[in-house]
TrEMBL record:
<dbReference type="Pfam" id="PF04568">
    <property type="entry name" value="IATP"/>
</dbReference>
<dbReference type="GO" id="GO:0005739">
    <property type="term" value="C:mitochondrion"/>
</dbReference>
<dbReference type="InterPro" id="IPR007648">
    <property type="entry name" value="ATPase_inhibitor_mt"/>
</dbReference>
<keyword id="KW-0496">Mitochondrion</keyword>
<comment type="function">
    <text>Inhibits the enzyme activity of ATPase.</text>
</comment>
<feature type="coiled-coil region">
    <location>
        <begin position="76"/>
        <end position="110"/>
    </location>
</feature>
<keyword id="KW-0175">Coiled coil</keyword>
<comment type="similarity">
    <text>Belongs to the ATPase inhibitor family.</text>
</comment>
<protein>
    <recommendedName>
        <fullName>ATPase inhibitor, mitochondrial</fullName>
    </recommendedName>
</protein>
<dbReference type="GO" id="GO:0042030">
    <property type="term" value="F:ATPase inhibitor activity"/>
</dbReference>
């Protein structure tokens, strides 16, 4: 009988040697035990490490509030810059539209 084992199984083999006085011979027994191991044991080895990791930043409430304030300020500046660009683009399109309207009026007045 053959077993195909997945990554979450392991095999334990035992070899037993014994002597039988009745037959005056040695007995050899080979036991194979296949057992399924939970995947969390094999993969999640970092689960038992400390919560503080190397290179982590301070996790105080004051620091997180300050960090959030900096992120919010960056977001406001970024949105203001995008809005400024869009307004400039709209003004350029309005000027182009006015110029094209003048050309259209000139062409229609000549006809």
């Amino acid at each position: 009988m053959a077993y195909i084992l997945s990554a979450v199984e392991y095999v334990q083999c035992r070899l037993h040697l014994g002597y039988s006085s009745a037959n005056d011979s040695y007995i050899m027994t080979f036991t194979v035990i296949a057992r399924r191991v939970p995947l969390t044991r094999l993969v999640l080895s970092r689960g038992y490490t400390s919560s503080v990791r190397e290179g982590s930043v301070a996790q105080s409430k004051g620091f997180s509030k300050k960090e959030k304030a900096h992120e919010d300020e960056y977001a406001r500046r970024h949105e203001a810059e995008l809005l400024r660009k869009l307004k400039a683009e709209i003004e350029a399109k309005k000027e182009e539209l006015a110029r094209l309207q003048e050309k259209h009026d000139e062409v229609n007045s000549k006809q």
